[in-house]
Amino acid sequence: MRKKRTPPFSLRLTFEQRARLEQEAAGSSLSAYIHERLFGAEAPPARRKRGKAPVKDQQAIAELLAKLGQSRLSSNLNQLARLANLGALPVTPDTETAIIEAADDIAAMRKLLIEALGLEVTP
Predict the structure, then answer these.
(1) Which of 45, 47, 104, 123 has its CA 20 to 30 A from that of 77?
(2) Strand partners, 28
């Protein structure tokens, strides 16, 4: 026999009130967040929404994706790694410069992504 579910409770909010709750929920479902606020430790554990990571700066995310799309970083790094594994990577000033530039580009993209997600940037 199936366990009966309790009927849902409905509450009307203004757009501003709902936006505030969603911001405070920070990725948790509104239901879980409200449970936690009302019942504290007695509330069921909150689950994070899938695909709803808090994004602080949509423009920065767009810039990052554009840079990734324009770059050949993954292809170039894969080629360097393959040559290094074969022992066939000549370490010339050009190679060293290319590796340093790729590392700098990756660091810049990491910083952009972290800032866009509203996280703290660490060195």
Answers:
(1) 123
(2) 48
Nearest alpha-carbon partner for 113 in 70, 56, 52: 56
Q: Which two tokens stand for residue 86?
A: 């074969």
In sequence order, which residues have a C-beta less than 8 Å from that of residue 123 and are 6 or more positions away? none
> Of 49, 52, 20, whose CA–CA distance to 37 is shortest?
20
Q: Which two tokens stand for residue 10?
A: 């409905």
What's the CA gap between 13 and 28, in Å, rounded?
18
Q: What DSSP designation does 56 have?
A: S
pLDDT digits (tens, 9 = 90+) for 57-102: 777 777 777 877 777 777 877 887 888 888 888 888 888 888 888 7
Cα gap 52→48, rounded to integer Å: 8
Q: What is the pTM assigned to this prediction?
A: 0.42
Residues 6+ apart with CB under 8 A from 54: 26, 27, 117, 118
